Each structure stands twice: as structure tokens, then as C-alpha cells.
Amino acid sequence: MGxxxxxxxxxxxxxxxxxxGEGLYAxxxxxxxxxxxxxxxxxxxxxxxxxxxxxxxxxxxIRKAIRKMVLTERVRAVSFTGGEPxxxxxxxxxxxxxxxxxxxxxxxxxxxxxxxELAEVIGAVDVVAADIKLPGTSGKALWAEHKKFLASAGSxxxxxxxxxxxxxxxxxxxxxxxxxxxxxxIPFFIQPVTPTGRLKPPGRARLDVFYQIASEKLKAVxxxxxxxxxxxxx
Length: 234
Ligand code: SF4
Known about the structure:
Elements: E1 9-19, E2 29-35, H1 48-52, E3 55-58, H2 59-73, E4 77-81, H3 89-101, E5 105-110, H4 115-121, E6 127-131, H5 135-138, H6 143-153, E7 157-163, H7 169-182, E8 188-192, H8 204-217, E9 221-223, H9 227-230
Parallel strand pairs: 2-4, 4-5, 5-6, 6-7, 7-8, 8-9
Antiparallel strand pairs: 1-2, 1-3
Bound molecules: iron/sulfur cluster.
Iron/sulfur cluster (SF4) binds next to helix 1.
């Protein structure tokens, strides 16, 4: 991130409530705490602001914002998202413990590579929404990092893999193999990219091929686009 943050602070892009639009908990109302800063540069990134900008906030102010939203909107879950929240894992741990003390279910949305930092916080997290990034979209192979990450997340994890009309079957197959090594029962979401720039989602026939490859090794495969983008909400 190139920036030293005091331990009692975190660099946050935004805090808001919305309906979860991705993965296993799609449709659930949640508080979202979006950490600023990311260590990857995915071609489809829908949160460029989270990668660049952010405001240094005292943890006390973030706690206060979470508590206020929980009290006024009766939300039962909080998602720590980004950017990449594990880049600020000390602050994340403190905030996750606070959320648990309020009785909230704690979700972590992550690029699924920072396995050492995950080990520090996993005790305070209930659900890990882990991406498996394909080299064709993230620009680098992260298989070894993903493998260690999924081992550390254990049964708390579900997986999302973003596919485009150009995603190679070989890369997708490798992601499926990695997921199956973690568990044949791990929920696996094939997420067609939300159109952006020159990136387009795969057509129906190609999606069927992805589904077929995934379901040969995995028991819980779903195709789900980003619903919040379809709804035009945050
Ligand atoms: S990991 Fe997420 S926030 Fe970071 S560049 Fe990729 S899509 Fe964007």
C-alpha cells in the first residue's frame, strides 16, 4: 500500500449497508466495510476506487458506524471487503472481534492469496468468500497462494471464479482442481464477468462447458453473475 497506518486506524474506502450480490449469501442484507488498497490488478476490477483511494479512520469511528447501521437497519451480518482487507489484517481482526461481540456473522471477501494474514484472523471470521484468480484476468499465476489460502480457510470458505468470453479452459480446469483438492463439497461459484471495457461474459454454450468441467469434480457448482450490478445498487 506504500503507506504506514497507525495500529488504531484503518484505511477505508466506504462503509454502507446493501444487499449482498455475490456468492453463497446473495440476497442477504449486510453492512459492508470496504478496505482501501489492493495488491492485485485484475482486468475486470469493479472497485478501482477501493484500490487507489481511502480515508484513514480511527477504529473507534468504524465501530461506531457499524453499530449505528446494525441498530437502525437490523442487519445481522457484516462483510469486510475491498480492495483487499487482509492487507490491513491487524485492524481487520479488531473490527471482526467487535462485530462478533455485537452478535454479527462476520464475512471476509478476499482475493484469496494472503494465507499468512488469513491465519491471524480466521478465528474471528465465520465465512470466507475467496476468489480464485485466473492468470488470464489477474495477470499472474497465483495457484500456490490460493492452495495455501484454501487450506487455511477450511470449511469456512466458498469460492468465486470470474470468467470472461476469453477465459481459457485449461486455466478454469486448474481452478476446479485446486478447489477439489480443498474439498469436493466446497461451494464453487462461476461468476460471469460484468461487462466492462472490452471484457464480455461467456455465452450460454461456453458457460455450459465451464459448468460441466466444474461439476465433474465438485458437488456444489453454481453460475451466478453480480446481482448488485444488475440491480444497479452498490
Ligand atoms: S483483487 Fe479485487 S479489488 Fe483487487 S484488483 Fe482484483 S478485483 Fe480489484
